[in-house]
Design brief:
Radius of gyration: 26 Å
Structural class: alpha+beta
Largest sheet: 9 strands, antiparallel
Shape: globular
Strand content: 15-25%
Length: about 625
């Protein structure tokens, strides 16, 4: 049944984007009765911008979601058309998986998954108001006039709250082109004491691939042996589609500048801040005036379409300017366009108004997730939705909130940054934001997080048994390589072929593996002694061998980072009483009193990361709390 049922739902999810889909799935899989309300049943988890999942730090987030039982990685694996592991020339802390996806299939796959969840109902409508009683959210009102009741509500409205589309001097109401905005909800939340502000995002033109000359571009193929995101048995990619690389030039820039006087960015019509790390092409030309060219990545939208996405050419300039400029890009001389680029301005709610379980401080049982919190990117949104869905379920059952530490997950870094630091521009995750990135590698998300998810009732027993079996074999490989020795006669032929220094006496295999030029899989395939050592463990796969190699090669770095995390963790979880009056602690600086009173951190660790709270302020706070 749909929302006609008389009893209240456990969780109502507002919005069917990446955050809403993960939130609905998590809560439903944990046993909550869930209703998803979305403006369009045909656009679930719509890839509004580029048709890809993952990338630097974002790929780590997707693997974390998957390790805990989320679906973004599975959906991506089942709909990808290309896979690349980025940053392989750097250390493993920087390796980041990225997939190019079929935009249409991605949304269809998500809907099929959600429709198989027996605890999940759907309703196509627009939410206009949160029903609040005694300071608690108890349901929602919709545009069709329904009142739908629940124990918790998760808002994941994306860019639709008072969404306004900009193309040159024209303005259109909408959260995406061709889709209406959500009205009234922001004003309702403002009246409930939750402050809002404006942000801006943008998207580039889409073009007809039949009219592009790819011979004038640089082809970017996928990995020869493509990987995947999910730790489950998703299918492996057998064929791939290429992306292409080309560049703008001074002639392109000059044409674009002709439209600057009509650009909503430069005339002040757009009030919201745009993403610093994904600026529009006009913003790039203005900010980097000395650069004669900018990269453009030409990305296919799917297996069976001629539509291409022009990554790097986001714009809100008049469409005729966009078209004239793009036709001066090598390979685009005869390009035909499907639609122009545009900017979207929308309401968001500064995330410092949230608790660490993503519940609003002003209204109990009301959770926010995704771009409504000031983030950008499908992956960041999906992670927040996943955590909000879990915590909405746990809140109903009066169980402790599920909160990940900065040393445990990129998701922990993401949420901690949002709540302790806030954001005035669209927040995007990078590896540089994580101080423990050697611990938070993309390869070990299952080791870090699957058991945690299993303990709260989300990850399945099948998953946890698989993870335990995997890491037991990895430990056996490590132990064997540490204890077993290899003679010069057994290893020197391999070293000689690869022009590596020979050994003169027996060496522990572990010592050889620590050489940066030696790959354990190469040794396994070419050195009989090593193959025998590993095969004795039984049923070992490539992934387990590669993980063991990484742990051996980077052992000292990993142990050092663990030591630092444990040392800082001494005060990381040191709880601060909720009723503390910071204004009464006169030893704190005025700025610290102001920021602490506003954000109200739950622990000393969170307090220490608030901008404006100095180390001396933290010391004063520790002494005060101890007393």
């Amino acid at each position: 049944m749909g929302p006609g049922r008389k009893e209240a739902y456990d969780v109502i999810i507002v919005g069917g984007g990446h955050a809403g889909c993960e939130a609905a799935a998590a809560a439903a899989n944990m046993g909550s009765k869930v209703l998803m309300i979305t403006m369009s049943m045909t656009n679930m988890a719509q890839m509004s911008c580029n048709p890809s999942i993952g990338g630097v730090a974002k790929g780590q987030i997707v693997r974390e979601i998957d390790a805990m039982g989320g679906y973004t990685g599975i959906v991506s694996d089942n709909t990808m058309i290309q896979f690349r592991m980025l940053n392989l020339s750097k250390g493993p802390a920087m390796w980041s998986p990225r997939a190019q996806n079929d935009r249409v299939l991605f949304s269809i796959e998500w809907r099929e998954i959600l429709e198989k969840l027996i605890n999940l109902d759907f309703w196509q409508d627009t939410v206009t108001e949160i029903i609040v009683k005694g300071g608690r959210a108890i349901g929602v009102k919709t545009k069709l006039g329904l009142e739908l009741f629940s124990k918790t509500v998760v808002l994941s409205n994306g860019t639709f709250l008072n969404g306004l589309i900009h193309i040159g001097t024209r303005q259109l109401s909408g959260g995406r082109i061709g889709e209406r905005p959500a009205k009234n909800l922001t004003e309702n939340l403002n009246a409930l004491g939750i402050k809002s502000s404006r942000m801006k995002t943008g998207t580039p033109a889409r073009v007809d691939g039949r009219t592009l000359d790819f011979s004038r571009m640089t082809e970017q193929e996928g990995d020869k042996v493509p990987g995947k995101f999910s730790y489950t048995e998703t299918k492996k990619l057998e064929k791939q589609k290429s992306c292409y690389l080309t560049y703008t030039n001074p002639e392109v820039h000059d044409i674009l500048k002709e439209g600057f006087e009509r650009s909503p960015l430069f005339t002040g019509r757009i009030k919201g801040r745009g993403p610093r790390y994904c600026p529009s092409i006009e913003d790039k030309i203005e900010r980097f005036a000395t650069k004669n060219q900018h990269q453009l990545f030409i990305e296919p939208e799917g297996w069976n379409t001629v539509e291409f996405y022009i990554n790097g050419f986001s714009s809100s300039l008049p469409e005729e300017i966009q078209f004239r400029a793009l036709r001066k890009v090598p390979g685009f001389e005869h390009a035909k366009f499907f639609r122009p680029g545009y900017a979207v301005e929308y309401d968001y709610f500064p995330p410092s108004q949230l608790n660490f379980n993503l519940e609003t401080k002003a209204i109990e049982n009301l959770f926010f997730a995704g771009q409504i919190n000031g983030t950008t990117g499908y992956e960041e949104a999906a992670a927040q939705g996943f955590m909000a869905g879990i915590n909405a379920h746990l809140k109903i059952r009066k169980k402790p909130a599920f909160i990940l530490k900065r040393s445990e997950a990129y998701i922990g870094v993401l949420i901690d940054d949002l709540i302790t630091k806030g954001t005035e521009e669209p927040y995007r995750m990078f590896t540089s934001r994580a101080e423990y990135r050697i611990l938070l590698r993309q390869d070990n998300a299952d080791y870090r997080l699957t058991e945690k998810s299993y303990n709260i009732g989300l990850a399945t027993e099948e998953r946890i048994l698989k993870v335990r079996s995997k890491y037991e074999k990895i430990r056996k490989i490590e132990k064997a390589l540490k204890n077993e020795s290899i003679t010069p006669g057994e290893i020197n032929p391999y070293l000689q072929i690869h022009d590596l220094p020979l050994i003169r006496q027996k060496n522990k295999i572990e010592t050889l593996i620590q050489r940066p030029q030696i790959k354990l899989m190469d040794l396994y395939s070419q050195v009989e002694k090593l193959r025998n050592v590993i095969d004795c463990i039984g049923n070992v796969c490539c992934e387990e061998i590669e993980e063991a190699e990484l742990l051996i090669k980077y052992k000292s770095y990993i142990e050092k980072e663990k030591e630092v995390a444990e040392k800082l963790g001494k005060f990381e979880d040191f709880m601060i009483p909720k009723q503390i009056n910071y204004n009464s602690i006169l030893s704190l600086s005025f700025e610290a009193r102001e920021k602490l009173s506003k954000i109200r951190p739950e622990t000393i660790g969170q307090a220490s990361r608030i901008s404006g709270v100095s180390p001396s302020d933290v010391s004063v706070l520790i002494v005060y709390v101890r007393k």
